[in-house]
Amino acid sequence: MHYFSSTYSEARKKFCDIAQSHDWEVESHVNPICLGPEGEDLAMDTVWIGSKDAKNVKIITSGVHGTEGYAGSAIQLNLMELGSFDNLPDDTAVLLVHAINPYGFAYNSRTNENNVDLNRNHIDWSKDLPEEHPLTEKLCNILDMNKWEESFFMPNTLNWQPLSFLFMFAKNGTRTMQDALTRGQYRFKDSLVYGGEDPEWSNQQWRGILKKYLVNAKTVEHIDIHTGLGASGDVEVIFIDTPSSSSRSSRYARVKKIWGDKVTCPGTINSESSVGTGAMNNAIEEEVEKGVVVTTVTLEIGTLKPAEVFKGMAMDNWVRSKKLPATDPMYKKAKNLAKRAFFLENDDVWKEKVLEHGRQTVEQMGLAPSRVTKPTINLNNVKNKKR
Ligand SMILES: [Zn+2]
After folding, report:
1. Distance 362 CA to ligand 1 centre (A)
2. Are residues 276 and 357 in the same domain?
3. Distance from the CA of 137 to the center of ligand 1, in angstroms?
């Protein structure tokens, strides 16, 4: 279980170390805006494996939602160690991108240094903003964390949300509320699921990476790894309906050909997810030459019940709105809950499932592990539960 780290910097070090031990090219994009909690650099790191001329490129990304990077990073490490990328055909290369949102990863936040949800930031900024959900304004007013009291978050508070929020839930139903909460909004910058006001640093870096590495690509397959949606340890492979020159049905057919009929569509009965705007998956087709065939999905692995995940997000948003210093006892408490919402650090069964889902989903892209061996480098020996 040494694939899982307790901090962003630990995960970053392991990722870079193992790539370098394979002599794979590591490229670091250091965030110029902010530093980590220990004053360390915050970086988006990439590893390229295979020929620069490869026509088929497989991409695996982690940590677009900061805290969710613990699972994504562990999956990337596990695959590197199991040799999933060791015997690539000549025409195939792999691009791993670690910590798309290094600030959120380091500070246990779903959002970035500007409280932007990066998976809502990849819209076409030259056009009108996406249509807002009818409930957004009311919801964001209720979720204005500056108005929330500390007592809401106390462990013994049964109904920790304000009554107005609970009434809204009762009136509109869980699904509608989830749709409203997660669609993405572009007006309330201190609130939840805020998409920003222009392309964020991470968005620009991610696009730059795609431009640089996909020059020779003819087909691109991509998995973006997330956690926090669905029952604990359950997996969902989600079709992201990106703006595209090809028809929706042909893109959906391509996704199902790789990942099978279990692939779900946001907002439908078979998916836990709602339709969102501005997913990072959108950037790929926008940054490659016309005619390149792009197939992209989101991998979601469940953690806690929706109310607990929401509480983690709300508490993180609360300490950020109140600008609480890291020394404040409530800061630590909030960040712990925010972390736990997306990363079940003490649950070995969950961790095993995360790795297994990662391996399976990547194997379906044609990248099978070539061995089941001990780590090639000493990452950090943590007692492991036998499978
Ligand atoms: Zn996510």
Report:
1. 18
2. yes
3. 22
Beta pairing partners, 56: 92, 219
- Does the predicted model carry a pTM greater than 0.85? yes
**Domain contains 125:** no
Say whether both 34 and 183 belong to one domain: no
**Could you tell me which of 205, 189, 196, 203 has the C-alpha nearest to residue 129?**
196
344 Cα to the center of ligand 1, angstroms? 15
What tokens appear for 10 in the block? 């630990």
Q: Is residue 1 part of a domain?
A: no
Distance 175 CA to ligand 1 centre (A): 18
Domain extent at residue 351: 8-120+196-305+342-363
Whether 210 and 286 map to the same domain: the answer is yes
pLDDT, tens digit, 9 for 90 and up, residues 136-161 = 999 999 888 888 877 776 655 556 67
pLDDT in tens, 221-269: 999 999 999 999 999 999 988 877 788 889 999 999 999 988 998 878 7
- Tell me the Ramachandran region of residue 35: left when phi exceeds 0, alpha when psi lies from -120 to 50, beta otherwise: beta
Q: How far is the CA of 226 from the centre of ligand 1 (A)?
A: 4
How many domains, in total, are found in the chain?
Answer: 2
